[in-house]
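As noted in the main text, all predictions were made from sequence alone. Below is one such record, for NAD(P)/FAD-dependent oxidoreductase.
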Amino acid sequence: MLAPAVHNPSQRPQPDSLWRAMAARSAHKLAPVSMGAPLARDLSVDVAVIGAGYSGLAAAYALQKRGVDCAVFDANPVGWGASGRNGGVVSSKFRLSFPLIDKLHGLDTAKRMHRLAHEGVRVVESFVDEFGLERAHFERTGSLRCAHTERAFAAIRAEADWVRTQLGDASMSVQSREEVTRETGSAGFVGGVLSADAGTILPLEYVCGIARGLTARGVPIYEATPIVEIARSLRGASGAVLRTPGGILHAKQVIVATNAYSDLTSATAAYQRELVPFRSAMIATARLPAELDARLMVQRRSYTETRRMMKWFRKVDGRMLFGGRDAFGKEGQATGFVALRRAMVALFPDLADVQIEYKWSGYVGMTFNALPHVGRSDDITTFCLGYNGAGVAMASLLGQHAAALALGDTPELALLGQQGLRPVPFHSLRAPGVRVVAAWYQFLDAVGA
Ligand SMILES: Cc1cc2nc3c(=O)[nH]c(=O)nc-3n(C[C@H](O)[C@H](O)[C@H](O)COP(=O)(O)OP(=O)(O)OC[C@H]3O[C@@H](n4cnc5c(N)ncnc54)[C@H](O)[C@@H]3O)c2cc1C
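Prediction:
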């Protein structure tokens, strides 16, 4: 029998982000973020969900809907991981383009993947409706992909064309250089493609709103409760015994929803080996002067660009929010922020004198095949992870599919389903490997290749 551990080794406060500041300003303050006390007794549930981000909460939602006794456990506050600190871009795509999926796996698979991608956006809409998450400000304003070279523009135009003719999806439309310049306020792009089935959300409000809704429906959420050890039940009983600092937990099934933070404890660290964690950093300016506010990003969409080391931006709370991947930095390090500011000013010279008021970062889980992975790692454990930086919608969907798998169902997963864990080859070399690839990408971006 496992003995409870004596202390919580890892609990940290919610990262100091614009989202935290906005939540603190709103009527409910940060109360919703600390809704669950730590587990302080032994407990038995049918399904234990590890991780209180979108994946874990979506799994708990699906379980609760089916009347399954479940509880959620997080080492930190709800949304402390990527779910509470991301850019809030709600997108309907994967890192692999649909034409490439067709080339590699055939048209039928591309169609199934396309359906899953758009279903993710529907799930966000339905959470917002069902839990009354007005404060999450979901706006289906679309996402504009801005081309940094003529070659990149031709490629994204061809992709939009393919999606329209082969998948019958007319939600993508091409914008000229003039249109992109007028809409963004940046002269740095040669054209763009607008995806209408996308939008923006306040990510911390969204994750906390779902958690509040689940708590109201009787799903216990234990914060400050790391799972520090997982063992199989003894004496032939099926199920798992999970150790936390405050109590022992018995569960028939376990869902691991810890994504790029899986190595917080050794109990879930094996799942980190499915991933190459990549640091993603964000900066938010001070509120923009009225003239700039009226000129930049007037449609309130999200914007991405075609560079390999992609930057993305949106306007929120009257500020420019600018983000990008930074393979070289560690969480909290200053280097990535300086580079981000430089990139922002290069695209928006008007922002040169506007102060940066918030900067924060987190880890995204990249996978070897550039797609999320959902599956069973053994007969009592299900996992979902690896959203490759696009998890707001996808984790909201795949958490629910993980719950279905845990209950023995076979949800439609197209290329996302996976039997067992498949660690990234040469995982121990991932950090230097990521740096080499990122440096190469930066070089290609710099020479406009
Ligand atoms: C800076 C940044 C910007 C991003 N921007 C976007 C964007 O604009 N659009 C988009 O779609 N996606 C974006 N993403 C990706 C997106 O945020 C993630 O894909 C998504 O939030 C993953 O959700 P999750 O629930 O799987 O994981 P997380 O939200 O990371 O949750 C994992 C949780 O597991 C907990 N945990 C880990 N180990 C244990 C353990 N042993 N015991 C208990 N708890 C444990 C952690 O404390 C954490 O709270 C971004 C990510 C980052 C970091």
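The radius of gyration is 21 Å. The chain is about 35% helix and 25% strand. These features were considered when defining construct boundaries for the mutagenesis experiments described in Section 2.9.
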